[in-house]
Structures are given as C-alpha cells and as structure tokens.
Amino acid sequence: MKKSLYLFAFLPLFFSSCLTYKTVKSTSTVPAGTEVSYAKVINPAYAKDYIGADIITEVQFYTPGASNAWQTKIPKNHIVFQVIPIGGSAKDAPFGGGALGDYVFVPKSQGDLIFNLQQGDRIQLRGGTRIRKAYIGGVELIEFIATSVTKL
User: Fold this and answer.
1) Is 21-151 assigned to CATH 3.30.470.20?
2) Spatial distance between the Cα atoms of 52 and 75, rounded to a whole number of angstroms
3) Among 43, 83, 119, 134, which lies 20 to 30 A Cα-Cα from 8?
4) Is 121 helix (H, G, I), strand (E, B) or coil?
5) What is the β-pairing status of strands 78-84 and 55-64?
6) CA dist., res. 78 & res. 108, Å (int)
7) Strand pairing partners for 84?
C-alpha cells in the first residue's frame, strides 16, 4: 500500500518535470537588420545563432493565439500568433491537437495588425529566436520574439 502511495505521489512530479523548460542564453553576433530565410531561422542547426538577434525574415501568417496542445510561456506584455514558412504548411500538433504553426511573440502594442491578418498573408518579422529546452528529454522549442511585424 505504501509503495503504491509513493508511486502516485511521484508520477505527477515526474510528468510535470518532463514539461519544464529552461531558456537557452543569447549568443547572437549577427549584424542588426540581416535578412535571413525563415527556414534557416527555425532550423535547429541555426536557431541558436539568432537568439536575441535583430534579424529580418518573411513568413506567412497562420493564426492568432497558441494551441492548447503545446506548452509555451508568453513574454510579459506580448501576444502570441502562429506562422508558417512561405509556401509551407502547418505541422501536426502532438497528441492529435490539430495543425500547428511556429510561435511568434510580438508586443501588445502591435496586436491590432495581428488580429486583422488573414491566414496566408505574407508578413515581415524583425527580431530573434528564443529556444527553450526541456530538462528531461532535451526537446527544444524554437520560438521567434518579434520587435516588429509588417504586412507585405
């Protein structure tokens, strides 16, 4: 009986620690205003090069808001929306949560533009990546922190 009680007490702690992330520190030395293909920006081999950078990239708007199937931490005074590479498609969300784009965060002051965009609209993002790495399993979430968004 005691062993079962310990097991039930341990399981929630174990599963919640699987979803705990740490943010990878900024390492960017890319000159401000550098234009970079979005496919390269979100590629795990290159994403660390753009942490905290001030780069410019173009994407297609997918949808406002975040999926309930994916854990993310929205920076204070920012809103979240999803994008896909130009000509690309959304990914399948984990656990059958439907389709999912890549997360972008932008200051709330630019929120009106986001809520007036239609799926497929081309937009220009300026900012850099944020990478959050799971403590267990090492899964990396690559997100984009935009300082500005412009409709093209």
Assistant:
1) no
2) 13
3) 134
4) coil
5) antiparallel
6) 5
7) 60
